[in-house]
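Data availability excerpt. The first of two example chains:
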Amino acid sequence: MRYGLLNDSRKLDKEAWPLMVERYVALGYDKGVMQSAKDLPQPMLWPQLHVSEGEKTQACAAFNLEQQRPMIGFCPGAEFGPAKRWPHYHYAALAAKLIDAGYQVVLFGSAKDKDAGKEILAALSTEQQAWCRNLAGDTQLEQAVILLAACQGVVTNDSGLMHVAAALDRPLVATLWP
């Protein structure tokens, strides 16, 4: 039976497939091969991104990011608007503490996240602003991936860049809102 583009319909057995990730992985196999989560190859692989040290150095230089302070990435945007975002003043307070402790903070996101970055910057002192860069809307995706790889850690809302940071195996704090 064919429904639009779907030509391999499957009935979900939640007991056989208790985890959502297992259900999605199973879709990559013929339905006759996978009867339950126990049939999946173990250990289950996860997405991984790798960036060379040379790429990190080049990207940091291209955006004039200082090598003398370790970087912490902030991803303050969220696809579904302010209701899904950790408030900018919390990001600003954390940025101030990190900068005072010797880090630099780099803000990532799309052009529509630029204002959230401006609000974070505006809440910092002039001295702290020197160590916080708002790159939201200024990078291509590949550049953002490379720069996130150069970060010592990432603080993020539930966003695409959160998943990128996870695939880069960066230490990660994700703020998830209702």
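And the second chain:
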Amino acid sequence: MSIHAAITHRTSYKYDRPVSMGPQTIRLRPAPHARTPILSYSLKVSPEPHFLNWQQDPQGNYLARVVFPERVTSFEVTVDVVADMATINPFDFFLEPEAETYPFAYDEILAEELAPFRVLRKPGKKLTCLINAVNTALGGKELRMVDMLVMVNRLIAERISYVVRMEPGVWSPEKTLTEAKGSCRDSAWLLVNLMRHLGFAARFVSGYLIQLVADQKPVGDGPAGPTEDFTDLHAWAEVYLPGAGWIGLDATSGLMTGEGHIPLAATPSPSSAAAISGLVGECEAEFDFEMKVTRVAETPRVTKPYTPRQWQDILARGAAVDLALAKGDVRLTMGGEPTFVSATDMEAPEWNIEAMGPTKRHYAGRLIRKLTPLWAHGAALT
């Protein structure tokens, strides 16, 4: 039971004169390790003529390399993706025994293979303080690996406020910590660097984020989520754990990645994860983009078994039945046996396996006396 969501992503550049374009690299195709099932994908590039060749970078990400043999006055890229938004449990993985607790170490072969994702940059004062704070919180004790990931991810989310930052580039970890705010890519790069200094192989990920309106409001004071279906380009981090592979951590929300996170490029550094990169001749450019998500199919599910139209038909049929019963002077009665368990001692045998117990009759009497005036006024109690 799932929802099929269609993303349309259009990026366009208009130039004030005919310009020569160098080869353009487009990183807007779901990566091979995307867990969300991709039902269809298309990439359209204009203007014509152009040459488009697909390739994979050293990390296995899909790249479209576009060459324009003639001068152009515009450049437009349109991506259409349909994704199956079946629920993904981010904790559905097993770890090798040696990686079940932190701290841990990669074996020699794995450490060599992960070398690009373990490169350390000299930390500034604020990042050093953050690293020390994590180590102090651990107190030299072992911690379950999942708890470690959740703790560090939430730490970044709590310390760095999210802001929309339209200017290009990614802030250094030191600047993000100094500002105590940043875009999703700033928080992701901070988390990558922190995890590397804590001994993890970590990489930067750019991708699509899909957020759909929940069928029901959360219980209690939980986050309500978006008020309308939403999609945007997003960034997060991934760490490599023996036995589990790459695990996604969204430092913006403090949550692990789920079905709404569709990776496009996972790289050692943000510079090689840009959605579109390439050279263009000197000119004035007008930039525009559009992103939208549409539900193209919805299967019945526990939280929404009927479509709005089906539910209106059910209500209308019920009203017609009620009217027919009223016209025929049909009077309905209902009986039942309310069952209950103690709210304060629900594990006791009398509420699980024994027919009677020391408090069951007492509570039953109290319940029936409260229900009688509501459901059976004037009834005799036996």
